[in-house]
Amino acid sequence: MNKRGRLVVVLLVAVLAVVFLVPTITWYGFIPQETKDLALSSVARISDYAGERGKADLDELLGLVDKNENALLPAEYAYLKDSVKSWYADAGKAVPSPWTVVDVFRTQPNADAMQALLEAHYRNEILEVRDSSRRVIKLGHDLVGGTSVSLKADFATLEESLGRSLSAVEKSDILRRSAEILRDRLDAFGLAEPSVNIIGADTVTAVIPGYADTDSFAGYLAGKESLSFRLLDASLSNQIVSYYNSNPDAMFDADGNLAQPDTLPAGKKVVGFYYTDNYGSQFLYAPYVVDEESALEGKYVENALTYAGTASTDAGVRFNLDATGSDIFYKLTSANTNAYYVVEFDGKIIAPPQSITTGIRGSVAVPGFPASTANELVRALSTDAFPVALEVTGVHAVGPSLGLKGVTTGIAAAVGGLLLALALMFVVYNVTGLAANASLLFNALVFLAVLSSLGITFTVAGLVAAAIILLVCLDAHVVLFERIKEEKAVGKTDQAAIRSGYAKSMTNIVEIHLVLLLVAIVLSQIGSIALEGFAIILAIGLVSSLFSVLYVTRLILDATVTERKSAKLHISWRRN
């Protein structure tokens, strides 16, 4: 590739790297910690926050109207203009200019509508921060600390369902399998390299980076064991709606759950159908009466896949059943044609009731899910069911496993090592060493950008991988520069020495990168989650290192020399 082509490639990679790195820079440099904690918490907590801020802003706006309705709209509420403009258009009125505080209420005097608009603004702000967190370099709990969650295994309920007592060996095996499933489930949800351990005879602890509350973590515990298909009782469902309409105070119990009326027949229960909006908040759409006994349990679902719905915002989920589940569901549906069934997940109905027209075997296609709900459900069902129920018993913050002093010392050592390497290249190779330094920094830029775009977790193992990458990149430059020095020593021009040096050192440089890349691939397949993270980071760094040596360093060297005999390539402190 000629100089111009090499320059275009390097500039393109540099621009993309900066673009990919911006979310990480913004996340760690410009977003307050409390905002990040809120963004990573449960949707319910975000909704509560938006509601509180929306109500406070509404009260302030109404206060400004009472004080002086002709006062100009404060700058912090300028975002209201775009939404309120549509209200003016619907009312056929001219848009005011300039805006006063009363203008935002003229076409929509309903305070609830204004509060909903204010809440949506704050909710969207936090959800945008949450979305950006998927494109940043995450720091492992061994570097920044995080949240420790204690979960207790409910062996008593399991023994009751089995009708016998479990031995200590059986309990130990069940707890071990539960810990493995929890680790897989947290990994499936993209949590940054969680640490899961068994404590005592009935407790599992999970440590995840950053902040988490009980509600947000409880969502990770819902899987196949939380899924069931139940027959719907249409007649009783209509009666329960009438009952709640006549007795609104009796609709919910003290814990905020749908109340179970005393008049409900044995073997029946009330379950709410909850709809998830575009912001991830759930709203009760309707209560239904269903059979208390599950028609088909989630353990019979081998896997689940989404498919496109009839509307752009909807999706369907296809549940593929194993042989036993297929037979159970076929017998059930064949015996209950013209009836309805519902899909219950984690105590809530999450899709509209489905009519039964014929026996269903093999797989169950359920339409009508919001797209976000369908994706979350499929992800939750991607792991095995827990062999025993786990209940969150405690959540508390933990510091870095290395200790704050250890982390600070490690970061200082890493930065010091990099600066020492840059200085060493200049001391040994004169001005040409600066080309290697520029290449090393470019390598770091690309390396971090790729980590950011993939949302990779950076742990202590990642620091080790980064150190290896630095050494490999330095070694490649030493091999290259020594070859170029040898070519110059036999009288070749600078440009000829560079071409010959690259040609003769290429095999060694590529070989060491490919060998380590092969090692990284093997480690990613056979190791633990921590080892897999190390391997992925190492592989990314090796590719960026090779690109830097072959393109960036070559571009800089070519730009500093000509074909003339006079030496311009200062590759040592000795006179050429």
TrEMBL record:
SUPFAM superfamilies, A to Z: Multidrug efflux transporter AcrB transmembrane domain
Entry GO CC: plasma membrane
Entry annotated with the keyword ATP-binding: no
Membrane topology: Multi-pass membrane protein
Pfam families on file: SecD_1st, SecD_SecF_C, SecDF_P1_head
InterPro entries: SecD, SecD/SecF_arch_bac, SecD_1st, SecD_SecF_C, SecDF_P1_head
Entry keyword set: Cell membrane, Membrane, Protein transport, Translocation, Transmembrane, Transmembrane helix, Transport
Transmembrane segments: 7-30, 410-431, 438-456, 462-481, 509-527, 533-557
Boundaries of every Protein translocase subunit SecDF P1 domain copy: 176-233
Biological-process GO terms, alphabetical: intracellular protein transport
One example GO MF annotation: protein-transporting ATPase activity
Residues in SecDF P1 head subdomain domain copies: 286-388
Location in the cell: Cell membrane
Domain Protein export membrane protein SecD/SecF C-terminal: 389-557
Protein's name in the database: Protein-export membrane protein SecD
Species annotation: Parasphaerochaeta coccoides (strain ATCC BAA-1237 / DSM 17374 / SPN1) (Sphaerochaeta coccoides)
